[in-house]
Design the sequence.
């Protein structure tokens, strides 16, 4: 059951509702970062505890995005979207009342269960609401731009709330927006389902969660428990086995949780790699920068949030421009500029010290923000290009999953590198020197975005996307293919 042709006003209203859900999920992704030092002091936690506050959320998002997308295609997109909004609001309220670190991480996971039902499902609603290819490209561009605006707004908004009210208030902002979006969704979004939705894949879902959870736990806890300890080595082995088992199982399954055939398209595979690399860099950048500004330079949460304003503004402006750039010139210019700017901004901080001037910091923030602002729209657009409309939710979920995997790994790996370098006392003066290797790692992520961006937008890559679409069409008997842009 596809969405019937709607008036332009109603289509724009649906786009607005979907963007509201995207905004609150991604604001929550970054608003927490500026509150981490305050949370750490209240709960008397180590660096690994702060990593779990961030990664507990992104881990669940990454694990459930694909399940939520396919479930919505089967049971009804508006229904799953509404359930997701309800869980996200309840999870936000619970986070604001959490009595201990363990409860906070648990409630963050509840938030993420709801959040996993929002982004891929909303993307699927947009894909099936806008039937005209040009309008669809513009809507997806706006959608991708909102991601950048939301991620940019988080640290600034978080600084204002933490300084003025306390860290618990950062979760309150989700409640009115979530409730409003829930009411509007039930009033204006028509129900829709895929004509031939795929069956649920519980085994694949379990393998995805085991692989991601064991990898994340090993990375975060490795410095404290010892990289050569039986527990950590066992978790890495479990992650490797889970990944191999997942690939073998999904290849043999007709309606897989992860559609391996999608990856025969070079643009789709490239978008996945770019999503992981860019969000790795972004997650690591925010985590390092928060600890540096508040714990090393001694700034308040408000001052730290305001100091990231140059990055936030450049991200917001370029996110808005990027959608139009993709619609006019394709994905290549945005991806090349994004990779170059992210690499340059990170490289500028490889010599970070206690006395680095704030004007220099602001320049690095602006350059990195330009790069990250440019990258979201081409990722989203490429992920659904050439894909059948009936599988739009799954295709969008892969891109969304890749973003969260990247951010989870970024926070986990850079945090563990810091923990290994300065020990449990991450407030020590060794932080800046130890962070240099992390900044070089983030620089490498930017270079990877640039290189893969060039390869995945070549004429050869476009031909692989066309062949994949034809094969998928022949195999499944689908006749509604997403337009390649």
Sequence:
């Amino acid at each position: 059951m596809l969405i019937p042709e709607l008036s332009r006003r109603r289509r724009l209203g649906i786009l607005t509702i979907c963007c509201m859900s995207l905004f609150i999920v991604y604001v929550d992704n970054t608003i927490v970062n500026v509150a981490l030092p305050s949370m750490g002091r209240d709960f008397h936690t180590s660096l690994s505890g702060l990593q779990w506050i961030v990664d507990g959320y992104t881990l669940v998002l990454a694990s459930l995005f694909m399940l939520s997308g396919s479930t919505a295609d089967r049971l009804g997109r508006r229904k799953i979207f509404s359930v997701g909004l309800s869980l996200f609001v309840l999870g936000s309220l619970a986070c604001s009342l959490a009595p201990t670190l363990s409860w906070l991480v648990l409630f963050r996971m509840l938030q993420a269960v709801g959040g996993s039902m929002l982004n891929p499902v909303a993307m699927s609603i947009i894909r099936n609401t806008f039937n005209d290819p040009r309008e669809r490209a513009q809507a997806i561009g706006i959608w991708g731009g909102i991601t950048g605006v939301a991620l940019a707004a988080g640290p600034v908004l978080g600084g204002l709330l933490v300084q003025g009210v306390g860290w618990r208030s950062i979760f309150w902002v989700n409640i009115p927006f979530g409730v409003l979006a829930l009411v509007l969704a039930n009033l204006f979004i028509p129900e829709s389902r895929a004509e031939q939705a795929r069956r649920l894949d519980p085994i694949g879902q379990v393998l995805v969660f085991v692989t991601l959870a064991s990898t994340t736990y090993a990375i975060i806890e490795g410095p404290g428990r010892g990289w050569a300890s039986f527990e950590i080595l066992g978790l890495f082995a479990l992650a490797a086995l889970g990944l191999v088992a997942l690939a073998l199982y999904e290849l043999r399954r007709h309606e897989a949780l992860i559609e391996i055939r999608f990856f025969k398209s070079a643009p789709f595979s490239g978008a996945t790699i770019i999503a992981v690399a860019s969000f790795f860099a972004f997650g690591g950048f925010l985590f390092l920068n928060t600890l540096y500004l508040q714990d090393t330079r001694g700034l308040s949460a408000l001052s730290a949030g305001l100091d990231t304003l140059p990055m936030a503004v450049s991200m917001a402006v370029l996110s808005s421009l990027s959608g139009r750039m993709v619609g006019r010139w394709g994905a290549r210019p945005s991806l090349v500029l994004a990779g170059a700017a992210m690499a340059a901004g990170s490289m500028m901080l490889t010599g970070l010290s206690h006395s680095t001037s704030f004007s220099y910091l602001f320049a690095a923030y602006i350059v990195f923000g330009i790069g990250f602002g440019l990258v979201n729209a081409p990722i989203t657009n490429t992920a659904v290009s050439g894909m059948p409309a009936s599988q739009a939710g799954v295709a969008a979920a892969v891109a969304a999953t890749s973003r969260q995997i990247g951010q989870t790994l970024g926070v986990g790996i850079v945090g563990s590198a810091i923990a290994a370098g300065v020990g449990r006392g991450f407030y020590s003066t060794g932080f800046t020197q130890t962070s240099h290797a992390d900044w070089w790692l983030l620089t490498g992520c930017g270079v990877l975005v640039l290189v893969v961006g060039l390869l995945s937008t070549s004429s050869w890559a476009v031909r692989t996307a066309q062949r994949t679409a034809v094969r998928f069409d022949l195999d499944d008997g689908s006749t509604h293919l997403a337009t390649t842009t």
The chain has two domains: 8-201+253-476, 202-252. The chain is about 80% helix and 0% strand. Residues 8-201+253-476 form a domain with the Growth Hormone; Chain: A; fold (CATH 1.20.1250.20).
